[in-house]
Specification:
The longest helix has 9 residues, at about 70-80. This protein has a five-stranded mixed beta sheet. The chain has a single domain (about 1-100), classed as Sulfate adenylyltransferase. Helix 1 (about 60-65) crosses helix 2. The chain has helices at about 60-65, 70-80; strands at about 1-5, 15-20, 30-35, 40-50, 90-100. It contains two helices and five strands; from the N terminus they run ββββααβ. With about 100 residues, it is of the alpha+beta class. A hairpin with a 2-residue loop joins strand 3 and strand 4 (about 40-50).
């Protein structure tokens, strides 16, 4: 999965990432994690959940986004997509990741 910047969660052995689309991702698949197109490690998808933005637990949301408030996190996530996210109706994907090895 691609990240536009280095989030503190990427230093953890296990972390989440919230995405609008699942694409071809599935449980057990190993993904290359990249920051600005540089591979930083590989991680396996342990679990996938779907929740509306308003139902994502605050602690998970803030840790995932490095934000201080739910609204700041929403603006960050919503800013990644052209079409606005409906906080109350649209279900987002929460990927639970586990590092499998480091690069470099």
């Amino acid at each position: 999965m691609r990240y536009s910047k280095h989030y503190s969660k990427l230093d953890e052995d296990e972390y989440t990432t919230i995405r609008r689309y699942k694409k071809k991702r599935r449980v057990g698949k190993v993904e290359e994690e990249t920051v600005n197109f540089h591979v930083i490690h590989r991680a396996m998808i342990k679990r996938i959940e779907r929740k509306t933005f308003n139902n994502i637990p605050l602690k998970l949301l803030l840790k995932d986004t490095d934000c201080k408030t739910r609204e700041e996190a929403f603006l960050l996530i919503d800013g990644f997509y052209m079409k606005p996210i409906d906080k109350k109706k649209e279900k987002l994907y929460i990927f639970y990741m586990k590092k499998v090895n480091k690069i470099g």
